[in-house]
Amino acid sequence: MRIAYLDIETAYGGKLSFPQLCEDFENHEITIIGIRLMDGTDDSFLQLVGKDISRERLVGALENVGLIVTYNGRSEPDELRGRIGFDFPVIAARLGIALDKIYEHLDLVPECWRRGLYGGQKKVEAALALTRQLPGRDGGWADEIWKKYRASGNQQFLSELMAYNKEDVFMLRRIHEALANVPLVGGGYARLPI
């Protein structure tokens, strides 16, 4: 099965502050969509950046994908807490496509909750003893660095943001694999599609 690991970066243009801004989907400009495509021994990575981001290009990049994996990406409320995520609602608001209504989707957040792991992606990575090449960066940093890039045109800012997004996407696979070895709350293990 062809799997897509997907993560977005955004720049917020609204008036709300954290954490409310995380639910103001329409006011997040998608700055990067990173996608790692895996199918057997085939493994590729692509990024849609800035003006190259469109519904058509995203759908084209996801051609023949059987499963999309995200961290907090769902646009449908999860079964455990009834919450929606971030990536897919922003994509729906900005590009007019609800990915989890078209593609099979595995959001790693509820899977982490089932195993007693809580928090953002970086916190869960630390709990799983997964290390990053680019520590100390988060969504707030990504928002700020994009705005610096837009204001200055300095390609170094864009390169750093693209590297950060790539690491986020590649860490999704590592979390996905690591969860197979973490017992469920209450005991036992649950197999995840890979």
- Please provide the count of β strands: 5
Helix content: 25-40%
Taking the sheet with the most strands, its summary is: 5 strands, mixed
Going across the biggest sheet, name each strand in turn.
Answer: 3-2-1-4-5
Per the CATH scheme, the topology name is Nucleotidyltransferase, domain 5
> Per the principal axes of the C-alpha atoms, what is the gross shape?
globular
* The level-1 CATH class: Alpha Beta
Overall mean pLDDT stands at 95
**Percent range for β-strand residues:** 15-25%
Number of domains: 1
Tell me the span between the first and last alpha carbons.
8 Å
* Count of separate DSSP helical elements: 7
Just name the CATH architecture. Answer: 2-Layer Sandwich
Summarize the structure in words.
- The protein has helices at residues 55-61, 87-95, 99-102, 108-114, 121-127, 139-152, 155-179; strands spanning 3-12, 28-39, 42-49, 67-70, 105-107.
- The radius of gyration is 16 Å and the shape is globular.
- It has a single domain (3-179), classed as Nucleotidyltransferase, domain 5 (2-Layer Sandwich), CATH 3.30.420.
- The chain is an alpha/beta fold and 194 residues long.
- It has seven helices and five strands; from the N terminus they run βββαβααβαααα.
- β2 (28-39) and β3 form a beta hairpin.
How would you describe this structure in keywords?
single chain, 194 residues, alpha/beta, Nucleotidyltransferase, domain 5, five-stranded mixed beta sheet, 7 helices, 5 strands, 38% helix
